[in-house]
Amino acid sequence: MPAESLPSVAEILEHRLGEEMELNDRHLNPQMGRILRTLGFDKVWKGGEGAHLIDADGERYLDLFGGYGVFAIGRNHPEAIAAVEEVMAARTGNMPQLGVTLLSGVLAEQLLARAPGSVAAMIPANTGTEAVEAAIKIARAATGRPRILYAEHAFHGLTLGSLSINGSAEFRDGFGPLLPGCEPVAFGDLDALERELSRGDVAAFVVEPIQGKGVNLPPVEYLPGAQRLCRQAGTLFVCDEVQTGIGRTGRFLALEHWELEPDLICVAKALSGGLVPIGAVLASRASFEAVFDGMERAVRHGSTFGGNDLAAAAALATLRVLDREGLVERAARMGALLLELTEPLCERYEVVRDVRGLGLMWAIEFGPPAGAGARRLWETVERRQPGLFSQLITVPLFHEHRILCQVAGHHMNVIKALPALMIEEQEVRRFASALEETIAAAERYPRAMARFGLRTGLRAAAARR
């Protein structure tokens, strides 16, 4: 199609609504299209507001997926949108490259004011994975050491450097050889960490305060102990707050729960209200100055769009909304309520193994039922398709209750929720009630599995066609 005949965005949204799946299958990722059709998640999403997605028929779905956690202040928050519009109306001298801009500097000022005193400078980025890549580079340059340690089952991003410290084989397989010198240690095991640090060649230990894949919380003394061991070894202690930060866990940064003072902190995702790609590394003065240690080295690390005015404006608006609406404190309250409502499910249903979370980062884990026949069926199905039981929960929640949530990791019977921090109490209660109703139905495992298998089998056949 010639460029001059391209319609406007408004015209595309009006006249081509409903072509999403066809365009995806033709030009983007047809395998994703097959998954969506198989699960019946192939909706046409027309809009989003607050904690909800809105389909083409005007039906509202409670969004507990949250775009992987980016919509902390809710979808399409008017203040964040207004901030972006203000920048465009002002026609700022954005990204001079050989120059600096005001909004990025104010954002750095505001983030550092909310962070622990161990960090004193900001390195802008575009995404979480780019922030992690920067942290790896800074750690190696600042220490002169080659090795990077990370926790088993970690998720730090999907570009090559961050993938090299990704603890999930399903993301790593087929992309090697990855970055050398990157090695895992067991999450929560201080002895294993100390053994590796004692070799004296570790530049950094990179860790999520709470692991996103599975929502795994650390033992109480693990993170303070890890920080202490890193200090003793001359290793940089790096907290990846890409998903846990910006109020998600009931504190602005999750590390505050343990009074940590890392050398480097990675932030992204929710920082711009879900409107503009953004990321940043908050760095100690010592690590920053070890990298940018002279005029000739001022540009040894950077990013073309890092620190752009649109992202900075959206981020500043997000911080204002968090403060004015008390969303960090609200996340703590609503998260406590969600745990209060769902922890009893462990006692009521034998398939519920654990309910856990901190703030509005929540998960429920399932395991095989006690009955011999049901357990055999579970084990047979899990051998063929690990994690399938979780779909007995997520699919009915979507179709019968209009609630969108996610499985917390590949081949994992854990369901995760990352709702908007402004979620209403009635919606928290609605989710807990719908969840229990769905678990009760799914626990009747043979009948539930047969019904689910028939439904998904028909959808899979249609998706193949």
| Mean pLDDT, all residues | 93
CATH homologous superfamily identity of the largest domain: Type I PLP-dependent aspartate aminotransferase-like (Major domain)
Largest sheet: 7 strands, mixed
Structural class: alpha/beta
In angstroms, what is the radius of gyration? Answer: 23 Å
Total DSSP E strands? 15
Count of helix runs: 19
* CATH topology-level fold name of the largest domain: Aspartate Aminotransferase, domain 2
Summed up, the domain count is 2
Ends apart, CA distance between termini: 28 Å
Share of residues in helices: 40-55%
Describe the structure.
The chain is of the alpha/beta class and 465 residues long. The chain folds into two domains: 209 residues, Aspartate Aminotransferase, domain 1 (Alpha-Beta Complex), CATH 3.90.1150.10; 247 residues, Type I PLP-dependent aspartate aminotransferase-like (Major domain) (Aspartate Aminotransferase, domain 2), CATH 3.40.640.10. 45% of the residues lie in helices and 15% in strands. It contains 19 helices and 15 strands. The strands form three sheets. Strands 4-10-9-8-7-5-6 form a seven-stranded mixed β-sheet, sandwiched between helices. Strands 1-2-3-13 form a four-stranded mixed β-sheet. Strands 11-12-15-14 form a four-stranded antiparallel β-sheet. β1 and β2 form a beta hairpin. α2 packs antiparallel against α3, α5 packs antiparallel against α13 and α17 packs across α18. The radius of gyration is 23 Å and the shape is globular.
